[in-house]
Amino acid sequence: MGGYSHGMRQRLGIAGALLRDPRLLLLDEPTTGLDPAGMRDMRALIHQLAGDGITVLLSSHLMSEVEDLCDRVAIVSRGRVIHEGSLQDLIATSAGGYALRTTDDARAAAVARESAGISAVEASEQGLALRASCEAAVAGLSMALAQEGIGILALVPRMASLEELFFRLTEGGAEPAPPEPAEAVAA
């Protein structure tokens, strides 16, 4: 197999495993070293295998790949599983976040900090990020901004990406960041 490309060796390894008609297939970084077309084909194959009833356990550091391929996720940090469950439920934990862009973000931040039900107001280059306890709190904020003569350019709900949630779980607690990169293992 020395003369084959990395992508061809990946394909041959999976083909060999499938010859045994497995119910469980373990894949470690299956798209590493593949060109974009090979990555697309590998992802399509994984979707097809899962659709055919094969359980695919995927280990990957590529959070976008995990989001695309997996319906359940386990986050492993420092050798311990720190989260396990459905990907949809994990991403839903970030509900209540909003992105806000206005004609005067500095004044809007001050108004938001004083608004009932609004918390975690943070400025960034793209505008403001904030959390709202409910939709009524968002409506109240928009009214307060209008009363202050601040125009709303965008006020949209925002869900955190898996990568953001991964870092929140692995770096956001009281524990120090792991010395080695943590990895997501998903099925």
General description of the model:
The protein has helices spanning 6-18, 36-51, 63-69, 87-92, 105-114, 135-147, 162-171; strands at 24-28, 55-60, 72-77, 80-86, 97-102, 118-124, 127-132, 152-158, 183-186. By secondary structure, it is of the alpha+beta class. The protein has 2 domains: 6-91 and 163-186, 3-Layer(aba) Sandwich (Rossmann fold); 96-158, Alpha-Beta Plaits (2-Layer Sandwich). The protein has a 5-stranded mixed β-sheet with strand order 1-2-9-3-4. A 4-stranded antiparallel β-sheet has the order 6-7-5-8, covered by helices on one side. The radius of gyration is 22 Å and the shape is elongated. The two termini are 29 Å apart. The model is unreliable at 174-182 (pLDDT under 50).
